[in-house]
Amino acid sequence: xxxxxxxxxxxxxxxxxxxxxxxxxxxxxxxxxxxxxxxxxxxxxxxxxxxxxxxxxxxxxxxxxxxxxxxxxxxxxxxxxxxxxxxxxxxxxxxxxxxxxxxxxxxxxxxxxxxx
Length: 116
Description:
Number of domains: 1
Strand content: under 5%
InterPro entries: DUF4233
Order of helices and strands: HHHHH
Shape: elongated
Protein name: DUF4233 domain-containing protein
Mean pLDDT: 89
Number of helices: 5
Oligomer: single chain
Keywords: Membrane, Transmembrane, Transmembrane helix
Radius of gyration: 17 Å
């Protein structure tokens, strides 16, 4: 008889997806600091990238809490809002916003199918 299909720990798998997305986003935000500094006139954008990178890394470990998923969504909103400081932040929001929405979709669908 074969083992039942499915995840042994769906909550951990979903947290892994969210953490991976936030970690990659944090790294990209850190990598964006140097080009923003070289372009000049983007002090606010530099600070926003640095703060959002730290927030992304902190949220990686806090995804056990449901509020951390909402906070991850607020990071994406802050990227779009940061477009007023520099257009490249909107570009990052366009890349990572849909990725985070997909992570939220995966979370919702896994928890909807989770046996009690």
